[in-house]
Amino acid sequence: MWPELVIVHGKPRHPQSQGSIERSNGDIHDMLTAWLRDNESTKWSIGIKFVQIQKNSALNKGIGRSPYEALFGKCATIGLTSETKIPKEILMTLEKEEDLLKLQTESVNDQPVTENKTENIVDASDIPESIAEPNVEPSTPITDETQKVS
């Protein structure tokens, strides 16, 4: 079918044939193990995203930049400052995710609550009659002639 296709058979997890892949797998394993130990966790599925950003934002000597920067053309931004409108002074005081959640809850509770939020509801009397009443023509009854497909 594809005469140019060459299938190379190798042993999975064979370090001699896949050295760089094995080294990378070992690095990820070691980084994940360290994350699990440091965070007193057994949930590797949570830690892997932190390992991923750490690995992808680290300088690669071969390409002279991080893999993230090579792919996206800019350094990876980590943290809240890039996507939130929280002042930096407040961000600097946050230590845990719970602190952020508490801040969000407090800011929602501080907003004035109105009893009747109807400002976005449109009264039907405000709609011109030409729009309010659809122009519907009587439908044609279905007959044998209208059911035929050409």
TrEMBL record:
One of its GO terms (biological process) is DNA integration. GO terms for molecular function: nucleic acid binding. Residues 105-150 are annotated as: Disordered. This is Blast:KRAB-A domain-containing protein 2. Residues 1-75 form the Integrase catalytic domain. InterPro entries: Integrase_cat-core (IPR001584), RNaseH-like_sf (IPR012337), RNaseH_sf (IPR036397). Residues 105-115 have a biased composition (Polar residues). Transmembrane segments: none annotated.
